[in-house]
Task: structure prediction
Amino acid sequence: MKDQIVLLLALAAGLPVAASARQTRSGAGPASRFTAAVELAGDVESAVDNPAVAASPSADSASGTSEDAAQAQQSDALYKDGTQALDDHQWPTAVDRFTQLASLRGNHADEALYWKAYALNKEGQREQALSALDQLKQAYPQSRWLKDAQALQIQMRQASGQQVRPQDQPDEDLKLLAINGLMNSDPDRAVPLLEKFIQGDQPAKLKERALFVLSQNGSPQAREAVAQIARGSSNPELQKKALDDLALSGGKESRQLLADIYASSTNIGVKRQILHDFMIGGDRDRLLAAAKSERVPELRIDAIHQLGLMGAQDQLGELYQEETAANVKKEIIHAMFLGGHSQRLFELARTERDPELRREAIHNLGLMGAQDQLGQLYTQETSADLKKETLHSMFLGGNGQRLIEIARTETNPELRREAIHSLGLMGGKQTGEALASMYASSMDAETRKAVVDALFIQGNAHALIEIARKETDPQMKKEIVSKISLMGSKEGTDYMMELLNH
Result:
């Protein structure tokens, strides 16, 4: 119960429940709020344990509370000044404030010793900084700042030229930190240690971090170690991570290595991963080569899609012109959609001779919401089938206004009904009002029936009831009432009752 109260009060004070060393120092506010929360938590805990005492505090307890509050106020001021000095890179001031804060031996004494050491190190006073860290470890052996202190200690020792043996560190995180530092000074020694670390029984996340350290080092030994993992000498997950790291590191050698592994591998999964890594690394030429020459169809399609994700429109245009297979051309059109190249799709929708490919281009324009191009296509197109496809694409793109215009002005009855049907699928107040207006102004029975169907698809019982009240054709009214009866709306049920009682 006590822990829950403290937690709730900490949350109420705006504190992060599990702040890291860097997060805690982000500002002075949390320290002040923390102190206030802890004071309040202490009062509430006392009330929970002994309500009578809480109701009748003694003079001694009141005096103690006053002294505690004064110390808390002093701690807050020192913490605020110290953290501000750190932010301003005023290292001597920070050392002074955190030294005073540590001497109070309050709740933040261990944290104060850490930041004192941090500031001393920034001043170049490594020995005094190491002494402050030793004091932290001795005085507060259970402190949550110990791991940060050990990490800072490793960094300082390595920066001063001292050798830090990774195998002597108490946990795997610190071992990896020590190896990372060693990597910068003596890669010949560090690379075998990292390889051994990766091959050991460490958690996967630590292995991935070790692999990243390797990939970021430019030494020949490190590159070869990463290359071996990327070729599959380790487990598949690490191989995938090594391939990704090569792509992210960039550089001619990394790209060539990825190409070599792609050429030599027979594993479809590995090849797909490398195609993805070509995209990450911006290697358009190799993706284009794979899209042109890869014999495995799924890999070829994957290369085309990766070009689309890169926005490699020139390469896709070149590929489209050279390709003869319609199914592959469809994939290229889809890749153009992925890359957002509406102008190229518009050109294909206007000039492609294959009707299926034209439909594909029009469909993808709809998915992109390219309403201006679709409007131009509809006006210029002579094929009724392709006009239908354009209407469907307008629906996909949510262009209700253009569909309303076509539904009102199109002279082809079939296309007009198609536009009305699309308006029904779209729903919305604007389309509902437009459909009702079309019903009132149309004398064509088929158009009226299409409007009724569209309003039924919308679930627009109100509009159908208003139309039914005015309809004089018994057969049409019967059709409308039949649809209202299927809608299950309260307004529709009331209208049914009205008809029964009439």
